[in-house]
Design a protein that fits this description.
This protein is mostly helical. It has 10 helices and no strands. The protein has one domain. The protein starts with a helix and ends with a helix.
């Protein structure tokens, strides 16, 4: 029974990552000079490997490809600074690492991701992109792991942010990714989905 549960978990990680690759199509379209208005900690330049547009591109590729996932993880594994958004992507890289790790190591990486998400959110509690990253991970983890305790909270923040766009704290590309994920994955009611579809980008 335990083996079956872990197998289900492994498949869940795979489903999450591949579906996110389809939904988070922001990276290829995001202009290089895009700066996200809500982050208090971003001090990176466009050429930095930690610039939001660069991290989005890495994340999209990592969600679809194991080699890209390893590259994404290596980019962020030694990151020690306190930029909240970069830490959010570091947590996402750890979750993707769990997808590609051996069955023995999967849980370790998911627990690492949970701790890193906690740090990122504590630094910038109202940052919708960080909440989106955490929500996209936690909403696809099996309940038996006990690591999905922020799903309702993050969904509410994301829905409110998306409905208030363009004052959402998300740029246009990130807004499209959030809306696509919430609507396309059935995380909102039909009425909420209709409201989201009417929000101008």
């Amino acid at each position: 029974m335990r083996k079956a549960a872990f197998l289900f978990w492994a498949l869940g990680i795979g489903v999450w990552s591949s579906s996110l690759g389809a939904d988070a199509g922001w990276a290829a379209k995001a202009p290089e000079a895009t700066r996200l208005p809500y982050s208090t900690f971003i001090t990176t330049t466009v050429s930095s490997p930690y610039h939001p547009a660069t991290l989005r591109r890495h994340y999209e590729q990592a969600a679809a490809d194991k080699t890209a996932g390893e590259k994404f993880y290596k980019l962020l594994v030694d990151y020690k600074d306190r930029d909240a958004l970069v830490l959010g992507y570091k947590a996402a890289s750890e979750a993707i690492r769990a997808r590609d790790a051996s069955m023995f190591n999967k849980l370790t990486y998911v627990q690492d991701a949970a701790r890193t998400f906690e740090q990122a959110v504590s630094l910038d509690p109202h940052n919708p992109e960080i909440r989106f990253l955490r929500f996209s991970v936690e909403s696809n983890l099996p309940a038996f792991l006990g690591l999905s305790k922020h799903v309702d909270e993050d969904k509410e923040l994301l829905l409110n942010a998306a409905l208030s766009h363009p004052r959402s704290g998300l740029d246009a590309e990130a807004f499209r990714a959030v809306r696509s994920f919430l609507v396309g994955r059935g995380h909102v009611s039909d009425a909420e989905a209709e409201r989201l579809k009417k929000v101008a980008e």
